[in-house]
Design brief:
The chain is α/β, with parallel strands linked by helices. It contains 12 helices and 14 strands. Bound molecules: threonylcarbamoyladenylate and magnesium ion (MG). Threonylcarbamoyladenylate binds next to strand 4 and strand 5.
Length: 343
């Protein structure tokens, strides 16, 4: 069950003061937790990159409480962007637009565009309204890691280095926002999310989707991303059950994220049944990956997601990137190949 809570006035006051001082505040959104910085404060922005260990060439999303402030950030708001904003804001959609002159280049990664989002989470709204400006916020995790969907995940990532973490419970969506660029008369899907391609098409007509090879440079679009430290392998369910049986028989500990319970009993296996519904699967995906990552398995085997239903696209995208990352020690992958447990 999703618990959405409001912050007290004193929590919001502290958070706002912290941002104004150039320090960071982690806060909940309906997608994932963000690591927020005053978007006009270079020191605070530098701290975000430093803490996340993220290259400064990778731009941040500016969060605002309502579209009324959009023109502070974008020098031009194409009709398509206005239509998307009217339909999906507040909500899990980020728009990439031509940047306004005044936007700090740390926010834009030196590019001529800026990413903006109006989140729907009531606590994010409270914070943004009280702050009264833009909060630049990437997901509140170390560069390349799994995004946090609970306040305690943020604490796990950063310990005491983030002075304020607002706890708004579990993020409802659980995967990062859909990112759409509205530039030079073209609407382009840069990152799939819970706002789906056909929902976008219903509003604006044509939407370009690039193949991964020619997609523009965005950190979330690097293949090795959104990854636990244990290597992830995606396999069809029949193969998965066979691999689990053989790994378990050979005394290898393994972690599984599936859409159904196991048929057999495997003493060395941590098996999570994440169910068959795309919304609940997405909502719990990152928490499950964190649990499986800690379970001590040599590998996380993930059941291949269904094709032909776009509601699985965002989760599939993140899992494919996690699998491409190869884990902290991808040598293990080669060991697994060598002992013949991987196809
Ligand atoms: O749901 C979300 O979008 C969360 C919450 C906190 O709002 N934020 C998030 O931020 O996922 P981050 O930094 O982890 O991912 C933002 C993505 C990155 O892939 C970044 O490269 C892309 O947005 N991005 C930011 N500015 C961009 C720009 N000007 N052009 C293209 N992509 C951009
Ligand atoms: Mg991120």
């Amino acid at each position: 069950m999703v618990r959405v809570v409001r912050a007290t006035q004193s929590e919001i006051d502290t958070a706002v003061q912290t941002l104004r001082n150039g320090e960071l505040v982690a806060f909940p959104t309906e997608t994932v937790y963000g690591l927020g910085a005053h978007a006009g404060h270079p020191g605070a922005l530098r701290r975000v990159f430093e803490l996340k260990r993220r290259p400064t060439t990778h731009p941040l999303i500016v969060h605002i409480d309502s579209p009324r402030f959009l023109t502070r950030w974008a020098r031009e708001v194409p009709v398509a962007a206005t239509m998307l904003a009217e339909r999906f804001w507040p909500g899990p959609l980020t728009l990439v637009l031509p940047r306004a002159e005044s936007v700090n280049s740390l926010v834009t990664g030196g590019q001529d565009t800026v990413a903006v989002r109006v989140p729907a989470h009531p606590m994010a709204q409270q914070l943004l309204t009280a702050f009264g400006g833009g909060i630049a916020a990437p997901s509140a995790n170390r560069y390349g890691h799994v995004s946090p969907t609970r306040a305690e995940h943020v604490r796990d990532e950063f310990g005491q280095s983030v002075p304020v973490i607002l706890d708004g419970g579990e993020c409802k969506v659980g995967l990062e926002s859909t990112i759409v660029a509205c530039l030079e008369g073209t609407v382009r899907l840069l990152r799939p999310g819970s706002v789906t391609l056909s929902q976008l098409q219903r509003v604006v007509g044509e939407v370009v989707v690039d193949s991964p090879a020619d997609a523009p440079r965005v950190p979330g679009s690097q293949r090795a991303h959104y990854a636990p430290s244990t290597p992830v392998t995606i396999v069809p369910i029949d193969v998965l059950e066979k691999m689990v049986a053989s790994m378990s028989d050979s005394g290898v500990k393994v972690a599984v994220l599936a859409m159904r319970p196991p048929l057999g009993t495997y003493p060395l296996v941590t098996w999570i049944n994440a169910g068959q519904r795309p919304d609940t699967y997405s909502h719990t995906l990152y928490a499950h990956l964190r649990t499986l990552d800690k379970s001590g398995g040599a590998r996380i085997l993930v059941q291949e997601l269904p094709t032909g239903d776009e509601r699985w696209d965002a989760a599939r995208d993140r899992l494919q990137r996690a699998a491409a990352a190869g884990g902290e020690d991808s040598a293990e992958h080669h060991d697994a190949l060598a002992i013949g447990v991987l196809p």
